[in-house]
Design brief:
Length: about 375
């Protein structure tokens, strides 16, 4: 009732004030600045429009944590809400991790929605708007498909790349440093786990911030590559701007793609590899492509060394991730799932714990409870 609501929020406000007094303020409040390599756990939570902050039970001073970003990549995207039982879910997950002692995580698009990157499968996600990611075969087969891909990327990528980690990312980074996490296996290509400080990360589907030559394997930063492309296409850029598009347009999709329906796409001069003149492609696994042996081996090693597996923000519909769950189940490793929407694991009997809540809310509170 109202009494319980007021009491809970009074406690939260008191904890926020105490936490604020303990924080080491910086001149860059938008970034999580780690003043030491010691343990820290910033914990902020958005609930009913209110900001909540607390500090773990350690002797470490912390910096101001950024508030979770609002989704602005697609103005009509709405982060799905869970069951509204965040504290209960956090308690259950903390108990699961405590009992397992050391867990691995498989993360998906639901980890990054609070950072401002829409997902694919939620009611207002990319697939609901007819978005169809390019396949590996399409990209390789035709120059026109590559022109279309890079045209859309030149509009969308900078916005995608500008996104910062949310509190869920920071919570996992903290749990790793404190010895609870054996490693993270992410299906995301946004690099936000590493930016949050996690070190044991396997990017199962690659990274969207690097481009690689399909012939000689040469790599370079994607931003550098796209900047060169812009410089070599001044007329194209001028026409694009005259149509109302510009780099960082809010129509961007989850993978840095943007919605541009124009014949102008097919006049783009795509920059080849500087080493061998080959085809450059983002260093990610497109649909129809395969996960590298190195990534598979590293991911299996992480699961094998853990006593528990947590799925966070993923429907695990893609088999490369689901196969890791089957491996864990075969080896009697308990499985917990934190995801709002339906998953491939549901109703299979494989999971020991199923939670329908947002990762950016449950994970920080879980980390706090494990302090």
């Amino acid at each position: 009732g109202w009494g319980r609501f007021l009491l809970e929020n009074l406690v939260n406000w008191v904890r926020w004030i105490v936490s604020f007094l303990m924080l080491g303020l910086t001149d860059q409040p938008g970034e999580m600045l780690i003043k030491s390599r010691q343990l820290f756990v910033p914990s902020l939570q958005m609930r009913s429009g209110q900001r909540r902050a607390s500090v773990s039970k350690t002797n470490v001073r912390t910096a101001v944590a950024e508030q979770p970003a609002q989704v602005d990549l697609a103005t009509d995207f709405v982060i799905p809400e869970g069951d509204g039982k965040v504290t209960q879910a956090s308690q259950a997950l903390a108990k699961f991790i405590r009992q397992c002692k050391r867990v691995s995580f498989i993360t998906g698009a639901g980890m990054s929605t609070a950072s401002g990157i829409p997902d694919y499968r939620s009611p207002t996600g990319a697939y609901s708007k007819g978005h169809k990611p390019i396949t590996h075969k399409e990209f390789v087969d035709k120059e026109s498909n590559r022109q279309r891909y890079w045209s859309r990327s030149l509009v969308g990528y900078k916005t995608f790349a500008s996104k910062t980690p949310n509190l869920g990312h920071y919570a996992l980074s903290n749990l790793e440093r404190r010895g609870f996490v054996e490693g993270l296996i992410t299906q995301n290509v946004d690099g936000l786990h590493s930016r949050a400080g996690s070190e044991k990360v396997v990017e199962l589907h690659g990274t969207g911030h690097i481009v690689r030559c399909l012939s000689c394997g040469a790599k370079r930063p994607r931003l550098e590559y796209e900047t060169e492309m812009v410089e070599k296409n001044p007329s194209w850029v001028g026409e694009l701007n005259s149509m109302g598009f510009q780099s960082g347009d809010p129509s961007v999709r989850p993978d840095g793609d943007a919605d541009i329906n124009s014949q102008l796409m097919y006049s783009l001069e795509v920059v080849p590899c500087a080493v061998c003149n080959g085809v450059m492609k983002p260093d990610v696994v497109f649909f129809g492509d395969g996960v590298s042996v190195e990534s598979k081996t590293a991911a299996l090693g992480i699961v094998d060394r853990s006593n528990g597996l947590v799925i966070a923000g993923s429907s695990v519909q893609v088999y490369s991730a689901f196969s890791l769950i089957l491996y864990a189940a075969k080896n009697h490793i308990p499985i917990a799932v934190v995801n709002i929407g339906e998953t491939r694991v549901d109703n299979t009997g494989l999971e020991s714990l199923r939670l329908h809540e947002r990762c950016d809310m449950v994970l920080p509170e879980t980390a706090e409870m494990l302090s």
